[in-house]
Structure formats: C-alpha cells, structure tokens
Sequence to fold (794 residues):
Amino acid sequence: MTFGALRIAQKDLNIELRTRERMTSMVLLSLVIILSFRFAFFGFDVNLTGSPELVAPILWTTIFFAGLVGLESSFSYEKENKYLDGLLLLPTSRFSIYLGKMLSNFLFLVVIDVMTVVFIIAFFAYDFGGDILTLFLVLLLGTFSFVAMGTLISGMTMSARTRQSLLQIALIPLIVFTVVIPAVVATSTVVIGSGDLAPDLRILGGFGILSLLLAYLLFGHILEG
Amino acid sequence: MVGGMKGTDSRNEIIETRNLTKKFRSLTAVRNLSLKIGRGEVTVLFGPNGAGKTTLIRILCTLSRPTSGDLLVDGLNTSNNGREVRRKIGVVLHDPLLYDDLTAAENLRFYCRMYGSDESRVDELLDLFGLRHRRNDRIAVLSSGMVKRLSIARAMIHDPDILIFDEPFSSLDSDSISKMVSLIGQLRSGGKTVLLATHHLKEGYDVGERLVIMKKGRIVFDERKAETSAVEFESAYDELTGASS
Amino acid sequence: MERRKLIDIVLVILAVVFVSATTLAAFYYAPLEPVDVLTVVEHESDYTGDDVRVKGVVHDLSGQDLSLWDISSPDPGITINVTYSGEGDLSTLASDGDTVYVVGRYDPDDGFSAKEVEIADDPDEPAGWTSPYSAKIFYFHVPAAWTSFLAFGVVLGCSIAYLLKGGQKWDIWALSSAEVGLMFNTVAVISGALWAKAEWGYYWDWNDAKLFSTFVLWLIFIAYVAIRSGAVRHESIPRVAAIFGVLGFAAVPISFISSRIWTSLHPNVVASSTGHLSSEAGTVLMLGVLAFTFVYATLFSRRTAIERSVMEIQDLKEKLEEEE
Fold:
C-alpha cells in the first residue's frame, strides 16, 4: 500500500483543482506580503539589486507565512468537514496518511515558491540571473524540510479550536534553527554568490529526513484518540 | 449480568470484546464491557443518548482506542492488527465520509483504490444503489437520502465481512427507512455480520436477531429476538432506561 | 494522603532553609576569584632579574588603590604585588577592558615594580568581569537554568512513559513539570538578561547562540503549555502534548552545549576546564542548585495535587450521576 500516500495526495490535488480554495488564499497571501514589503520600503528607496542580502529574508518570510496557511488547512479540511474518519478507516498505515498530506502540502507550496520568486522579480525588479536554478534547488529542499515537520505539527493541532495560532506557536520554535536560518542563509549564499552552500543544505535535508522518521514513529499516536 | 450468549458457538464469534473500558477525561463511556458477536448475525445496540453506543462503535471500527481491555475481530487483536481489521469491516457512520467537492464516482473510486479493490466495483455499487445516473454529480448537490446510500456503497466498496452502522435510520423518511431495513435483510442473507446502533426501537427490533440494550456504558439487556416479543422488548427498554414513552 | 502531606511540609521547609542559606552565602562570597585590576594573560617564565613584560587585561579600575595593584598570574595561587612608579596612574593610561603590556622588575620580596604601561594593539578577551558584584546573580541564574533543564527532563521521561504505557499519572506529571520548568526557565532568562546589562552593557544579543537557543527552548515550552491550556479538552491532547514534549526536549541539550560549540559570550562556569569559580563559590552554587531543586519539588508536588483533586471531583460527580 505504498501507493496509498500518492492516492491521497492525488485526491487533494483533485479537490484543489475543483475548488481552488487553498491555492487562492496562499497565492493571495504571498502577493500581499510581497506588496507589504514593497510599500514598507517605499520611503527608503530600497533596491534589492543594491542590497541582495534582503532577498532571502523577504522570500522566506513570504513562503513561511503562506505555507502556514496551507498547512493549517491540510488536516483541518478533513477534520472540519468530517472526512477524517474515512481516511482513518482505510487499511493503510497512519504514516501513509501523513505522507500523502505531506506530498500535497509540498506541491502546493512549490507553486507558492515559484509565485513568490515571480512576485519579487515583478515588484522589486530583481534579476536572479543565472542563479535561478540553484535557487530553486534551495527552495525545494527548504520547502521539503518545512513541510515535513509542518505536516506533523498540523496533524497534532487540527483538533484544537485555536489551531491556527497553535500551529504557529508549536511549529516556529521547532524550525527556527533547523529550517528558517539554514534556508535563509543558503538562499543568501546563492543570491550573493559567495560562501559554501553544502552545510546549510545538509541541515535542511537532514532535518527533513529526521521529521519523516519522527512522523513514522509518532503519527499513529497523533491520529488515534 | 451478561454472559456469553446461549447457543453462540465460540468458533463462530467474529467480534469479541474483553473487559473493554473507555474513559474520557471526565467520564467513563464504556465500562468493563464484554460482548461476543456471532458470525452472520444481525446485532442491534439500543440505548438512550449517552449510553456509550457511539463510543463502542468507534472502538469496534478502530477509530478509538480503548482505555483498557481487548477487542478481537476474527481472532485478530485490534491493538496490533489495526490494518487487517480495518480491511474486514465496513462502517457507515452518521457522517457520510464523502468529499463534498468530488463527484459520486470520484469518491467511490478514491476509496476503491485505497482499499485496492477492482475499479469495476464502483459501477457495480452505483447500480446496486440506483445512483448510476448521478455518478458525475458532486456530493454537495445530492439529496440526503442519496448521500446516505452512497455512504453505504462506500462502506461496502471492499466487500467486507462485517458491516457496522451507527444510527442508520436517523434523518431518513419512512420510505428510505423501509429500504434500509430491506438492505440489512439482504446483507444478512448474503452472509454478512451486521452490527447496528440505533435509538429507533421499532426498526431496530424489525431487523435485529439479537437485541442488546446499553445504559451508562454497560450492557443491561441481551436477548435473542425469538425470545422476546416487540411489546415485551419495548417495556423492558422503557423500564431499563427510564424512558417515558 | 497523610504521607503526602508530610512530604509536602518537609519539602517546603527544605526549600525555605536552602533558599535562605543560598541568599546569605551569596552576600559573603563573590562567584569569582578575588578581583584584580590586572589579569595576567602572558608573562615571561622567570620574574627575577631584568625588566620583564607582562601582558594583561585591565578591569574594574574604579574604587581600587591604583598605586598598588594586585595581579594574579594565570598559574593558580600566585598573586603578585605591583607598584607603579611611572607617570600618572593606571586609570589615566588605560580603561576597563583594555589589554596592556606592563614592563617592570620583579623581586620576590617587594613584588612587581612597574615602570611603563602601554596599550596592546593585539587585545585579548577579558578574562575577568567588568562587573563582579552583579555576577552574584549567578547563584540564582545557574540553579534556575539547571532546574528548568531537570524539569524538562522529567517532561521527556513522563511523555515517553505516557506514550508507551498510557496512564493519566504520567500525563499529569508531564504537564506539572512543564509548567514549573517554564517558570524556572523564565527566571533564568530574565536574570541572565539583567546580568548581561550590567556586564556587557546590553540586555540581549540575538547573535549569541546560547541566548538564542535558550530563547527557543523557552518558546517551545510556552507552546507546550499553550497546547495543554486550551479550553478544549479533546481526548487526543495529552497524546499530542506528550509527542511535543519529546520533540521539544531536543532544545535542552542544544541550549546547554550551545555556548561551547558556537560563538557565544555566555560564560562556561560550570563543567568547563577554564572555569573561574572559587571553591567557596562552587559550594554556594551547589547550595543554590539544591535550594531550587527543593523549590521545584514543592511546586511540582502542589501542582500535581491540584490536578489530582480535579480528577477526584470528576470521579465523585460521575458517581453521583450514576446513583441518580
């Protein structure tokens, strides 16, 4: 039943293609955050080409906040609409349910990664030049690491009434050192074009794999009351 | 108070609970409950709200873990064989467990693939429940009767040996109720084990072979239908649960 | 029940006695070796004979008799008297934190007679403290931090026990320990910030690994308590909290070792070969750790008692309902 995860992800994509609810709110949020930065820098005449060290923080702040919205609705969509029992009754492992959800969250967030880069190019007239492929490698790895732990915590907080704030309170301290800082540093390394990428990519990949392992061990406990 | 049923052969027990207890933080919903259900039987659980029926049903279909005690389904202990047990049971809960934004056929196909069943089963069940003409309609636009039928089709997608219904008669009109009664009859003659929880005394009595009444997490009445008339049963229910009607 | 009461009374007495003893001792013992104007970083092996150059770091100039300095060599137990006969005095030549070379002559009977003082252009990290008296906060800061680590360790143990064995007892213990531990961690963070202001001149440094990682630890257990404290009493909450307790504990060793593996100004006083702790100060610190552990035990015991009463009330309520 290793395909169970793929089928759950496929189901999420089908629903998203029909309703476009989650994608719409995530893309809009990404746009609003980028525009907020644009307006906030209005008086300073900040030009990202002149200060490339600002690119990575702006990029990741946007991705993390848009990602939190996506993560929050990942399980709460099933829970709120009372579909979750249907998944729990399936003869798949609980880990497959996690993997399926992680996969769909990852795909949604990759779209946000692309859109955010496009928004930065559009609103800050920033030219990523030839770095763009390396940049996407870093974005993919950072997104994977973020989503791997995020999906686990999203599964933990779905039952709470204050789950949106709880997800943030619980997730952010766990990813400060393990995802946020390495992702921002690695992205800065790519954008500024000096320094060693490998250590930060190793932290991102390692933490993503560690999160998968934790989910494998713990996700059954999370879903069973 | 409640022993094994007379005449129930131990080899033929498909569900057995041993001293099952479920405690929530502030209440004990199921208390030390031992129950054996024979293969191919229709067992009906009655009881007022808060008797622990739904909690028991959720434990039986592995959605909830008991605080203590064991549950065996076809000889498998659910605490470590959850996946095999879930393969053997089909569950119709109060919620249809169908995605509003997907069509009838898409929903069934999703569950069909998840159970690894053959996809021809989707059309087979749509025909059986008379929903073929609505197969490409989203669940959100179907009537509640249709959704109920489709939720039964969903529960039967992997042709399980055991079917568990939670409140199958609620929010149905009288026509749908009689259809439901005849469906349960068909399942019975098809050799399925059926367990249902309901507070509809009349319909429950009609479909049941074994009648069980729960109160405050315990079994307070357990008889075969052959041994109790409808009138006797209803007065026993009123007496045991303190219901006024 | 009676035994529990007795234990509680003994714990309260122990906590009060030890906290008072620590406070008193803190008045008498500075946490560091006797304060010197100049801490020697390098010196020539032989002090006798010709002029020698001594490299040292100047600190705590104010309020000292500047014509007569005590300098302690990095070799333990050697303190040398210094007399300065050059122009001006040290306070005009150097200021706190400067690294200086002192040239002079050493005589075993008269001590070190300095003639010249020059500011070094290759400064050393200060080996001493610009503000040795405010460092007394260590007697509370270090025990509070240790006790919070202990409390979070109890959370980890109880969470694992809850996941493996179940049982409300483990859940209650984990919750109680997390709440009390969070309080101690808050004390450690605030007392650390107060000391930093006195010693470093600012309350907080976000680039300091120790400070940052401890702040993250603090956030994690705030999240833990937040998960528990919702009005929602969902049945999965204890399990979720237990998992979070296990995940969150990872921040404890990170916070503990961070000042040793990453750049941090945070002193490594305990469990470090370069500690500047005098043996008296070490004793007071031990006293403090014991005192705070008793305070922890007292609060933990009271907190679990509250939770037990809640359970009892619920059981009684249920029994009453059943008898109806």
Remarks:
- Confidence is low (pLDDT under 50) at residues 1-9 of chain B.
- The two ends of chain B are 26 Å apart (CA to CA).
- The longest helix of chain B spans residues 174-189.
- Chain B is about 35% helix and 25% strand.
